[in-house]
Design a protein that fits this description.
Chain lengths: 532, 241
């Protein structure tokens, strides 16, 4: 606790010289803060050494992809692109619509942090657009040089693998594009094409294998979950005197909570899981976790593969049907909430308004009085508004809190009944449970928020250099309010943000315990029945 | 020359209309299998129409993004719109009173259009990031548009041409009659470049115009929890379950 009560030492702007002290760690260095948010000068090829690990054959094959780069992959990749152009209007339109106006060029956190021009959204898209033009447009077939078209070669593939694995699919560029071109859609298509010819990214494909085999990204089997949850019950009982339950696979529970598996083990994630349990306990709502659907995350989205995404999401549908729950609630996880909010109804029928038997089977089981699925923040905020939760806000007085909008929640989803609820509701909760709240610069929050630097399936050690650099714009905004307002806690509602910040905060001179969940704050302040 | 231009204009019109129609058909028939509006997004169809209106008329996202590009781009597009409307007088008899009314504005809009284009082109040389992303075709496109604007202004203010004859020529084309086009190098250049622009429209980045209306991040209603959205090719997976 001492960590949190002492205001965090004001971080000096890290300079390359100062940060590079231990010789062996000299490779990964936080870039210096910019005094003003100037646009970096181009550093051509500065990230060309960033080499994500290529997936092993076993991991690719487990997902139905070829094990290694197939013979004739050039033609197959081009053919796959053609297939995707026919299946996704987004890709179809975005390949044509860009006018190279340059509006997006300074919007990507990875460009700001690295200066590599291929991290400008338009340049990243052009890695694919140049191939599209060569094979699918008349000018590209006739005058490739004139329109910047290029053949599908190994060099092009290498650039794809490098730079599409430097996009966290955060959609910040899509906010600013006059045609709404979303680089995430292009990145997803590129990953889908690369997977289809046997050239996948190890981190993501290996993790998806674990979901299919065991049920979650961390590969935690049921008995391990049970153990952990029992441990949590003991901890909470000891700390609060309240017999809060963390139930697993309870048939007939009202709520099925689906949460990122990091919540079971990782710090600070677990503190939010403790918080969810306390909320349900205080409100008297029966709930359960599921060993089958023990993962809210869905890396199928990161690789743009509809079938993988559906297959992973189907576990939640199956668990909901088996357990007979009335409500499905999703824990703190950014891309998981995007998939749940925007795609689950399409993929699995978790939602409302269906007219087909597949979806109706589930939708008639779910309680229509609640949004299906609901975000845990929607649940908590509704309960707060209904006066069903009590808080001792002073319990959070050692914290001066700010809120980091997670990219997928901010730009790919919603909460509540109105556009922008995803911004208001988590902030409302924080203000209901803590006395000291400070906003970061408006250029870096709401739909203009910066990705933490670790999203999109890039949360892996071999990309640490990229992750540290990509965090720069967020760290600059954080540093300003740390210096000015003494902020010492950055709340967020995403498992990837939490893991990423825990890792990169120290590179910028901050304590890693500065980051935590919104329900961690709820957990600190909530008053449980036995304490009244 | 009269016959050559007549043929060119007929061919260019066919390519322009047919090409854009084909592209629009392609965009329309390609499904958007997932709900991907960039949020916060409107939750009603009316809201989406309003969002699209703001994008088309005011370039809202570009305004949020970069004031320089917005100012130059908007100046160019509004100038172009007025100039195009003004040119309707060459295709209609009698001239609609609105078209007659905007004639003086359309005249100066030509300067606004040229100024916007010049500014946008300057950025391609002066701003390192935009220099990096510019292809030869980006430069040629601006050169072409600026050429059209320049020759037009030249004929209006310096080397006049016989606009009555020009109008006779185009009114004739519309009823498949070929009349005499004035012999004027500026006019030949102007019309030649317009023909070129019409031809490349359906195979170039000028497709951003129809493309915007089909952009799923902008044209989708944010209501995935309330209605089930399923593309035909995706519905096939359902059979397996």
């Amino acid at each position: 606790m001492a960590d949190e009560t002492t205001p965090v030492a004001v971080a000096p702007a890290p300079t390359p010289a100062a940060a590079a002290k231990p010789a062996e760690k000299a490779k990964v260095v936080a870039p210096a803060y910019r005094d003003y948010p100037t646009i970096p000068a181009l550093k051509i090829d500065s990230m060309v050494e960033s080499n994500p690990y290529v997936s092993a054959a076993t991991h690719n094959e487990a997902l139905g992809f070829p094990g290694t780069l197939v013979d004739g992959w050039e033609q197959k990749a081009v053919a796959k692109m053609g297939e995707l152009l026919g299946k996704y209007r987004s890709l179809r339109v975005y390949m044509d619509a860009c006018v190279h106006c340059g509006a997006c060029t300074d919007k990507c956190h990875y460009f700001i942090g690295t200066g590599d021009p291929k991290n400008m959204p338009v340049a990243r898209q052009d890695l694919m657009r140049s191939v599209y033009r060569r094979y699918y447009t008349l000018p590209g077939k006739l005058f490739p040089k004139l329109v910047g078209a290029s053949d599908m070669t190994k060099d092009v593939l290498d650039d794809w693998f490098r730079y599409y694995n430097q996009c966290s699919e955060c959609r910040r560029c899509s906010v600013f594009c006059p045609y709404g071109i979303d680089t995430a859609e292009v990145t997803m298509a590129a990953k889908e094409i690369m997977d289809s010819v046997g050239h996948g990214h190890k981190y993501v494909n290996e993790i998806m294998g674990k979901v299919h085999k065991i049920g979650n990204n961390l590969g935690l089997p049921g008995p391990a979950l049970e153990n952990t949850l029992e441990g949590l019950e003991e901890d909470v009982l000891e700390e609060t005197g309240a017999a809060v339950k963390y139930p697993l696979d309870v048939k007939g529970a009202e709520v099925l909570l689906v949460t990122p598996s990091a919540d079971f083990f990782a710090e600070p994630h677990v503190d939010s899981l403790i918080g969810y349990g306390k909320v349900f306990h205080a409100a008297g709502i029966s709930w359960t976790l599921s060993s089958k659907a023990s993962e809210a995350g869905n890396f199928g989205m990161f690789i743009g593969n509809y079938e993988q995404m559906k297959k992973i999401a189907m576990r939640v549908r199956e668990a909901a049907l088996e357990l007979g729950v009335k409500r499905i609630v999703v824990g703190e996880c950014g891309h998981a909430w995007r998939v749940a909010y925007a795609f689950w109804n399409t993929l699995t029928g978790i939602g409302a308004g269906a007219s087909d038997p597949f979806a109706i089977q589930l939708q008639k089981q779910l309680d229509p009085n609640y949004k299906q699925p609901s975000h845990i923040c929607e649940v908590t905020w509704d309960l707060i508004q209904a006066g069903r939760l009590k808080f001792n806000k002073e319990a959070n007085d050692h914290r001066i809190v700010t809120f980091h909008d997670s990219c997928n929640v901010a730009r790919g989803s919603r909460m509540g009944d109105y556009a922008g609820g995803q911004f208001e509701i988590p902030r409302n909760i924080i203000k209901a449970v803590a006395n000291h709240y400070v906003e970061m610069s408006p250029d870096t929050t709401h739909e203009r928020t910066f990705c933490c630097g670790g999203g999109g399936g890039l949360l892996t050690d071999e990309l640490l250099d990229l992750r540290v650099k990509g965090a720069l714009p967020r760290m600059e905004a954080l540093n300003r309010i740390v210096q000015h307002d003494g902020v010492n806690f950055m709340a967020t509602i995403c498992a990837i943000c939490k893991a990423q910040f825990t890792k990169v905060l120290p590179y910028y001179g901050f304590k890693m315990s500065m980051v935590g969940g919104v329900h961690q704050l709820v957990s600190t302040a909530i008053v449980l029945d036995n304490e009244q | 020359m009269n016959i050559a231009f007549a043929i060119l204009f007929y061919a260019a019109t066919l390519i322009l209309v047919g090409g854009i129609a084909y592209r629009v058909y392609e965009y329309a028939r390609t499904p958007a299998p997932l709900k991907i509006p960039t949020t916060p997004a409107p939750t009603t169809t009316g809201g989406v129409a309003f969002r699209m209106f703001r994008e088309v008329v005011f370039f809202e996202s570009l305004f949020k993004s970069n004031l320089w590009i917005w100012a130059l781009g908007w100046l160019f597009h509004v100038g172009l719109a007025l100039v195009l409307l003004r040119h309707l007088r060459y295709f209609t008899e009698p001239v609609n009173f609105i078209i007659a009314f905007i004639q003086p504005f359309g005249m100066y809009a030509g300067f606004a259009m040229a100024a916007g284009l010049a500014g946008l082109w300057a950025r391609r040389f002066l701003v390192e990031r935009i220099r990096y992303i510019s292809t030869p075709s980006d430069h040629l496109m601006l050169a072409l548009l600026l050429g059209i604007a320049g020759t037009g202004l030249l004929m209006k203010f310096v080397m006049h041409t016989d606009v009555v004859a020009v109008k006779t020529f185009f009114l004739g084309l519309m009823v498949f009659e070929i009349n005499r086009l004035p012999v004027h190098p500026g006019l030949y250049l102007h019309l030649g470049m317009v023909v070129l622009l019409m031809i490349i429209f359906p195979v170039s980045k000028l497709l951003h115009a129809p493309g915007l209306f089909f952009s799923p991040t902008r044209n989708q209603v944010d209501n995935p929890r309330e209605t089930r959205h399923l593309a035909p090719w995706a519905a096939k997976f359902e059979a397996k379950n």
